[in-house]
Amino acid sequence: MSEIKHGAPQIPNPLRVFITFESTGWFDTTQEQKEQELLPKLNGILEEWQHNGSELLGTFDRDILTAGHAGPVNWHACFLYNIPDLQTVTNMTHAFRAAGLDRYFRLEASIGRPFFLLEK
Fold first, then answer.
1. What is the C-alpha end-to-end distance of the chain, expressed in Å?
2. What CATH class has 19-112?
3. Given a cut of 90, is residue 14 above it in pLDDT?
4. What is the mean predicted confidence (pLDDT) over 18-31?
């Protein structure tokens, strides 16, 4: 078996970013608030992300076998992106703050890289 040489990880360009999304105050709102205020704002931000130079690679929503609060994993859904730079990642998370959605949802971005044995 040949030895695999594994040096220090290289920061990819574009950045590989895993964003976790958790509903927090969402559960304390009315159906009217959800439909008329929160979902339009949320959808607007997600649409903006389509035009910021990022590439959405995939999404994952845990709602098939869960309901209610996120529990110990602390997220309901996640998004995997290639994002051009760190400022764009910051702008994406800040969009929730600027829209007041951070009262209802929590985002957390993690930067990684493609897994070297599966993506070369």
1. 20
2. alpha beta
3. yes
4. 95
